[in-house]
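Pipeline run #58 for the internal structure catalog. This entry was flagged by the ingest filter as a single-chain record with no existing model, so it goes straight to prediction. Upstream metadata was stripped on purpose; only the residue string is passed forward. Reviewer on rotation: M.T. Logging verbosity set to normal.
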Amino acid sequence: QVQLVESGGGLVQTGGSLRLSCGASGSFFSSSVMAWSRRAPGNHRVLGAAITSSGITSYELSAKGRFTISIDNAKNTVDLQMNSLNPEDTAVYYCNADGRPQFEYVYWGQGTQVTVSS
């Protein structure tokens, strides 16, 4: 059974840092692009950062320079280090695994709340 479980969310003050972690179970990890997306209140879910199993990364513009995505293929985990947080970063953060185009699956975690107070 495929599972993605996020942890590390919480409440932090403006300028603070949080580290989110996503643990994956199942045999899909090495064939997936792993990513962190977020959905702010009233908004659609948007991609924040992504990483391949070989470590190639990409970032959404507002995350670049503040967020760092990393992967541990041995542990099947993908982390998101978030620095210099501001209230606009308040959202539910989701981990996902995307196997396309080679494999037809996209898996999502349940999400973890990040709240940045001003």
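catalog note: DSSP finds no helices and eleven strands in the chain.
catalog note: The chain has a mean pLDDT of 94.
status: ready for reviewer M.T.
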